[in-house]
Amino acid sequence: MNFRSQRGTLHNLSMFDQTLKCLALIANLLVVGTAARSVNKLANVDSTPTQIDVALFDDSGELTHPFHVSFGKNIGEPKECDAEDGEICLEWRNGGKLSVKKGEGDRRIISVNGEGPLEVCYKLNGDHLYGGPVVSTYPAEHSNITELPYMTGDISRFGVVLAVAERYWYTSSGLNIKVAPESPLFITQHEDKFCLIAKNEFPYLVEPSLSLQWSTCINAKNLREGLKCFFQSYEKPIPPKQVIASPIWSTWVEFKRDVSQEKAIKFYNDIKANNFKLSVMEIDDAWETCYGSEEFDKSKFPDAKAMVDLFHSEGYLTTLWVHPFVGPGCESLDKYAQYLVKDSDGSIGKTVWWNGNGTLINFMDPKAVEWFQQRLVNIQKEYGFDSFKFDAGEVAYVPGMGKDEKSVRMKHPNQFTTNYVKAASKFGALAEARVGAEAHTFDIMQRVQDTNSVWGAENWGLRSVLLSVFQLSLHGYGAVLPDMIGGNCYGDQPTKEMFIRWIQLNTFLPIIQFSLAPWKFDQETIDISRKFTDLHYEYADKIMKEFKDTSHPVINPIWWIDPEDSVAQTIDSEFLLGEDLLVAPVLEEGAVSRDIYFPKGSWKDLNTGKVYTGPGYVKGYSAPLDVLPYFEKV
């Protein structure tokens, strides 16, 4: 591998391919100017003192997916560095190193090292971007993120919503990227470019040398091929079939923190009286004597075991809301201090969460994890709960996290979230969590983050539900659990129309979850809601089949069956159940019709029997309030 330095000196950096030496020498004789160029079978590298441009060769010899590297300073001339067989290794005299090595198959592993900040940017050139943080924009290039620290957070902490922080990205032309968990990652996502950044800034530890490492498969030419680089198959946790077939009913929206045993049982009886199906009764927030005691408040739940036994006696499962905090005033705060996150002086660290001040269980400590799990096992033994709803778990709640000079920093912050979800996964596929980082393989339901009772996507309303499901599916999460029908009623209240359109959206998603009761509206709402929960029940075998099929996710964007269809790549209001059921819910306020884009193939309308042929639009499909457009591939 040969390159020309600024002074025109010819250097030999590697014996990777001796046959290239003569060709490279001839090429170098033709190069003029100050740029240094390195070419071998792996990559083409052009270097000046201020920038490096790299493109990888695919197996056909074509250059693919060029990227730009900046070391944040003048790096001077390149020089030789040690390289293994099948590896490019370049160093620069003023600091900075680049290596490209072969991985399994057509995978390449790329590393950039230096004092930092390090920045690697891919120009999108009209491509669409997918993956990355689960945000309320789709495709992801519209998210307009600039140098976001890539850690799990919450809107109340640092103004970011990043419940799931998986390190995969894809573009419509086949670029695929997986960033190593050890890299101190920041990201920029704009319509014209996507950048990976490593810096010695919050929330990461200060290191004398930074490393930004990622892998990519060089032969992928479209989205599905890019996904295949990291997901050869889609093994999925499979919840109990009754949970797939019939809704979960939570006490949260219906009662918020004013829940009690009496109210939960009345709610349960009302569900049955209105002839709604039921799989799980979920007892949500405010059942404890204080947050973190994990003891029932006897004034609200005088006999929690009798309540659970009642639900079980009629064939229903029961879950309980839990979290990683311990509140002030709890006996357990001092009694179990050894399991809590400490400040640098050894005192118990303090944090703030949505229920006030508190402390946090230390999921970086295996003994604390074991203690946390055993407490939940004890609850199961005493009361009979089948599993748990695990809330929170974001790194942003770690005591001392902040943007000032004295804030806590961690080498690998998202490991806290990974450990939390791993601990939750002990309680089986009926357990649910809302956070994730390197967590898609865990046997657990991944809940879409809290949604608001509004129509749009911008404020995590109705339109955001499907966008979150898409992104979680692309990250390999199989058992995706949409949030509650109608949203969480945080201030805004859903209208009858919104509630009905919400249940229609959820009809062919993997699992339905209610809390706000349909009978809060009127008889028509009850009838339509029951109609679509019954339709979901009828398709339970189909949904279960998609869980067991490892060739694709359960829910897919419509480009899945034609990844080079440029129109399908941007459709954010239609989806596929598996590969052969197309669903096009109405998501606009006041709409009684919608345009529907059909990907390639023939699609039978399961409302009317009419067959449509794609690719192409059908304009103004009639969809009054009681109609959900859905189609079967024939």
Q: What's the Cα radius of gyration?
A: 27 Å
Low-pLDDT residue intervals, each spanning 5 or more residues:
1-34
Q: Give a short account of the largest sheet.
A: 8 strands, antiparallel
Structural class: alpha+beta
Q: Count of DSSP helices? A: 13
**How many β-strand runs?**
37
Average of the residue pLDDT scores: 89
CATH topology of the largest domain: TIM Barrel
Morphology:
globular
Largest sheet: spatial strand order: 3-4-5-6-11-19-18-13
**N- and C-termini, Cα separation:** 54 Å
Strand content: 25-35%
Number of domains: 3
> Given this structure, which CATH class of the largest domain is correct?
Alpha Beta
The percent range for helix content is 10-25%
Oligomerization state? single chain
Named at the architecture level, the CATH assignment of the largest domain is Alpha-Beta Barrel
Report the CATH superfamily of the largest domain. Glycosidases
